[in-house]
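tool=predict chain=A
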Amino acid sequence: MKMMYLLKHTNQNLFSKILLKVLVVIIVVLVFVFAVNSTRSLLLEALSPLFKTGDYFYRSLGFMPKIFTDKNKIIEENTKLSDEIEKYRVNAIDYESVKYENQKLREDLKIKPVGDFITSSVLARSPQIPLDSLFLDKGTQDGINNGDFVLASDRILIGKIVEVSKNRSTVALNSFVGVISYGYVARTNEPLEIKGAGGGVIEANVPIDFDIIVGDKVMIGGPLSYLAVIVGSIEEDRSSGFKNVMMSLPVDVSKINSVFTQSFIGE
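tool=predict ok
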């Protein structure tokens, strides 16, 4: 009679199976992790442009309130500047209007300096008539005579009457060619002969040591002392020992519409 024996597994076989299972689990975990990481990397790589765009818009949105605030501030400042410019424009118009009305009022009322003066309106000037002359609307019937002083104000002498009729008269300005006047330097009281050179220019030829400087005022005497010319430039000629003094009228005659005449007998 044969006997059959059952073989029993040893502990070594059991240990091998456990080890195999552990290895399988580790491999599965590693595969899963690798797959997840790879997938995530690929996904991130694919979505990176969108992330960058989103980040740009996110950062841009952060500046939006500031942009709108700055824009509103600029609009407000521009509005204020526009209002100020318009205000200045209106004020300038008002000023010119008042200035014009004041000038017309003075002419209409014949406002003149205090004293024995005759007011005349300028009818013509260069180039309608000879250079450095004026044509006035008054004459002998109004009390104007040859040699009368012609003033731009109560202290500014611009010329003399050289021709007069019943109701018209002609003025030769201090700058009229060849007109000689005698005055003095206001700063030093030194006497000075001045001569018209034409074109608004008056000249004087003095010794090189004569005390006169640019800006000096030359006065002409009469019932009062009148400002006649102002020194504009000085040229020295040491070889001759003289210097040439160039002067001009104290006012712009082209803008004068009325003058005042005063009789003076003395020169």
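Confidence is low (pLDDT under 50) at residues 4-10. The chain is about 35% helix and 30% strand.
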